[in-house]
Amino acid sequence: MATIFPIGEDMTTERRPMRADARRNYERLLAEAEAAFREHGTDASLEEIARSAGVGIGTLYRHFPTREALLEALLHDRFATLCEMGADLLGAKSPRAALITWLREFAKSSNRYQGLPASVVATLNDEESRLYSSCHAMREAGEKLLVRAQQAGEVRPDLLANELLLLVASISWASEHSPNSIDRFLTLLVEGIRP
Questions:
Q1: Which of 65, 98, 124 is at the close of a domain?
Q2: Are residues 120 and 26 located together in one domain of the fold?
Q3: Largest alpha-carbon pair distance within the chain?
Q4: How many other CB atoms are there within 10 angstroms of residue 140's CB atom?
Q5: Which residue blocks in the chain are alpha helix, DSSP H?
Q6: Could you give the percent of the chain with pLDDT greater than 70?
Q7: pLDDT number for residue 130
């Protein structure tokens, strides 16, 4: 049975069997994009990614029509993991501790590549974005944890999910310039959201 991978403009919805050579190109492009984004941030050259993968820029664009499509392919599994984690944490004894645990993982995921927090924040209200669906599902997971903590009286009731995620994305951005500061900044944030 052929491996199924996303192709072209219908990347988020259509799945078709991919030829073996196209599959290799797809996997090489993802590997090179991962390395380039880690080294140079989310603004890394797409032309250089294609060149490093041993393919032309047209091949990159056939698989990933936009930079966001490439980012979405790299981040999809991480965002899905955050959604699953959020669902699991809904049963935790302490709603506040569950929310903090999830926020810490969200911050670390948002800090994977330099410039990623800005990319994630930019998609939160852009329904046309490739990252929107993944970000929206992740936001809903965080919102459920926030609402549960608010209902338990453990988090101030006037805090909105988008505000909280923007604050945590800001922490991720700040930690790009102040390594190893995520835990300290999150602690300060958590103290600020007490009722």
A1: 65
A2: no
A3: 57
A4: 12
A5: 20-40, 46-53, 57-63, 67-89, 95-110, 116-123, 132-151, 161-177, 182-192
A6: 85
A7: 67
